[in-house]
Amino acid sequence: MEQVSIIGIDLAKNVFQLHGARPDGSVAFRKKLSRSKLLSFLSSLSPCCVAMEACAGAHHWGRTIQALGHEVRLIAPSYVKPFVKRQKNDAADAEAIAEAAGRPTMRFVAVKSIDQQASSMAFKTRDLLVRQRTQTINALRGHLTEYGVIVPQGPQHVGRLIEEVRKADSNLHGIVVDLCEALIRHLDALHEQIAELDQQIRERVRASEAARRLTTIPGIGPICAAAIMALAPAPETFAKGRDFAAWLGLTPRQHSTGGKARLGAVSRMGQRDLRRLLIIGAMSVIRWAARRGAPAGSWLARMLAKKPRLLVATALANKMARIAWALLARGEVYRVPATAVV
Predict the structure, then answer these.
(1) Angle, nearest 10°, between helix axes 114-145 and 222-231?
(2) Is the dihedral of CA 124, 130, 133, 139 positive or negative?
(3) pLDDT tens profile 88-136
């Protein structure tokens, strides 16, 4: 086959669409291949650039195609969409992927290793179980509210709900008690599974020198440190800490024109799980500062004195993201900043 420079692949479950481009950008081939024939076809080609959208299965295919000697480039789907021509179909998508991959200023997604994907699955599984636990608590609370059983909000008060269900002099109907017991058993099972995953994540963090350094940052615990190591790209992907914070969606969205800068709320781009964990960690630091008092003259004390708490939490999460990038990129340890003398 003639020389091919870039191959764009529109991934699917069973049938893949390929678009091959020559070095001058002209079309070399357009093919539709089944899942079983994809690797045999790519192995017959000389090493070239193979581009795909960063979607489900993309990292698996990326590792497999890299093993054949090809260069793999994964592109965020939102960056491919502007290159799709008038009609939306698999052939047009594959061509758009090849066009986007050839742009010199395009941003690519790093192919994750098997270990990274395994750690990512552990974190996402824990997140799913936590959501299910919250749903179960809400269901138990909502059902008992119908029978006049009210307790304060928060998972720490679930024990009082259970006590009300199991009271000897309870006025609850027998069917209600049986159904609530089923929810309680499900809740106990979720508690055990989450605790087991928490222990595994802590052990993984203790075994990683980089993750241990991340946990020295105020507001970043083992869960957040493990999530950064599993979900974030390699630190060398970003030129500076602000780029990492922007990737997380913790920088203002711009709508500027005519030389006049207009900044809005945070963009909420990038990895939303990491962004959520960083903001939760920042809120814990703010709550601690509210109880103990932030150091006089510190950045946090000055911000809390004049800004709303949620805004300060977002700004603090931005700082935490930049510090985390610096620790990973430069191999340093966290140092408490000096406070201003007032």
Answers:
(1) 130
(2) negative
(3) 899 999 999 999 999 999 999 989 999 889 888 998 999 999 999 999 9
H or E element at residue 27: strand 27-34
Residue pair 328/235 in contact by the 8 Å Cβ criterion: yes
Q: What angle do CA 140, 144, 147 make, to 5 degrees?
A: 165
Amino acid present at 143: H
Number of H helices, E strands in the chain: 13, 7
Backbone φ/ψ region at 69: left (φ over 0), alpha (ψ -120 to 50), beta: left
Task: Read off the pTM.
Answer: 0.83
> DSSP letters of 199-240?
HHHHHHHHH-HHHHHHTTSTT--HHHHHHHHHHSPPGGGSSS
Residue with tokens 């799913």: 128
Taking the C-alpha atoms of residue 233 and residue 302, their distance in angstroms, rounded to an integer, is: 33
Q: State how far Cα 215 lies from the chain centre.
A: 18
Question: d(Cα 288, Cα 11) in Å, to the nearest integer?
Answer: 48
pLDDT in tens, 161-219: 898 888 877 788 889 889 999 999 999 999 999 999 999 999 999 999 999 999 999 99
Check residue 293 and give left, alpha or beta (phi > 0: left; psi -120 to 50: alpha): left
CB atoms within 10 A of CB 232: 22
Measured between alpha carbons, how far is 19 from 7 in angstroms, rounded to an integer? 6
Between 222-231 and 174-207, two packed helices, what is the crossing angle to 10 degrees? 70
Contact 316, 300 (CB under 8 A): yes
Measured between its terminal Cα atoms, the distance across the chain in Å is 73
**Which three-class secondary structure state does DSSP give residue 17?**
strand
**H/E element, 254:** strand 252-254
**What is the C-alpha separation between 32 and 9, in angstroms, rounded?**
10
- Is the distance from CB of 196 to CB of 214 less than 8 angstroms? no
* 6-101 CATH fold: Nucleotidyltransferase; domain 5 (3.30.420)
Residue with tokens 């098997």: 114
Both tokens of 81, joined, read 């969409």
In the block, residue with structure tokens 């609530």 = 180
